[in-house]
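Title: Comparing notes on inverse folding

I've been comparing how different people in this forum approach sequence design from structure. To keep things fair, I'm posting one structure and asking everyone to reply with a full sequence. Here's the target:
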């Protein structure tokens, strides 16, 4: 009598709506510390781990904890069947790039670059610098200093939190044919500036504002302590100014004529 022996493999049928494991990686083997738990994506496990080691990817087929000597291809791996050889790093990267959407955890790269449909770079992260030329930003909290500049128009805005000022700059002159562009002999100059200052008597922090025009020849200053001050050709022999303060008025026409009056005396003359 002949006895026939067969091996039957029972495959567990997934229940509809049951949550499966999520691919974690590929991540570099060397960046995972000893004691890191690799999961094979079995029943009740959250992750299916993939690592990169010596130019290839390896899929975890038996849940285990990382040690110094159970790397893919090691004796510990071969004896316990921890890892299955997968694809090369080049193919893994190609799949990530070509995928419509790929969630990757713990991916180390040196450069990230995004382009629009015309091939123009709109986002680049490289060598510690971040360049972004489009998009919407919400709920932003920035630390440090900020500068925005249009190379074509020379319009520039700078916020310096370290020194406490906000300044808008632009060209001293504009192009005769296109007023949006700087003139051929234009130089960069401050046009508007708000800065923080400190009052030594009251130890108060105050803000002052300057408006500049006509190539820096004219300046309007607003100060909480001194009031309104208007200068023309400041710092030259032809300087003229008008000061309007809380106590009175000072005026110089640049020709040596100076006028000063307190408000009470001035109002008596007017009224």
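Reply #1:
Here's my take.
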């Amino acid at each position: 009598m002949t006895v026939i022996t067969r091996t039957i493999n029972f495959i567990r049928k997934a229940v509809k709506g049951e949550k499966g494991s999520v691919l974690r990686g590929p991540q570099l083997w060397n960046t995972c510390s000893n004691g890191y738990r690799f999961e094979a994506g079995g029943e009740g496990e959250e992750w299916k781990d993939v690592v990169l080691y010596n130019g290839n990817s390896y899929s975890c087929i038996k849940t285990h904890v990382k040690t110094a000597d159970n790397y893919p291809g090691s004796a510990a791996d071969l004896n316990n069947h921890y890892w299955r050889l997968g694809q090369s790093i080049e193919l893994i990267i190609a799949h990530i790039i070509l995928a419509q959407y790929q969630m990757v955890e713990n991916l180390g790269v040196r450069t990230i670059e995004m382009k629009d449909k015309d091939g123009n770079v709109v986002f680049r992260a490289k060598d510690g610098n971040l360049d972004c030329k489009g998009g919407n930003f919400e709920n932003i909290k920035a630390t440090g200093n900020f500068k925005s500049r249009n190379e074509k128009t020379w319009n520039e805005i700078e916020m310096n939190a370290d020194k406490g000022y906000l300044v808008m700059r632009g060209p001293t002159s504009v192009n005769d044919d296109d007023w949006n562009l700087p003139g051929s002999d234009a130089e960069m100059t401050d046009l508007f500036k708000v800065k923080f200052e400190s009052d030594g008597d009251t130890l108060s922090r105050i803000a002052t504002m300057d408006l500049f025009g006509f190539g820096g020849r004219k300046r309007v200053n607003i100060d909480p302590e001194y009031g309104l001050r208007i200068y023309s050709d400041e710092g030259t022999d032809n300087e003229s100014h008008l000061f309007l303060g809380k106590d009175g008025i000072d005026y110089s026409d640049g020709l040596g004529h100076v006028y000063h009056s307190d408000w009470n005396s001035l109002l008596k003359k007017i009224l």
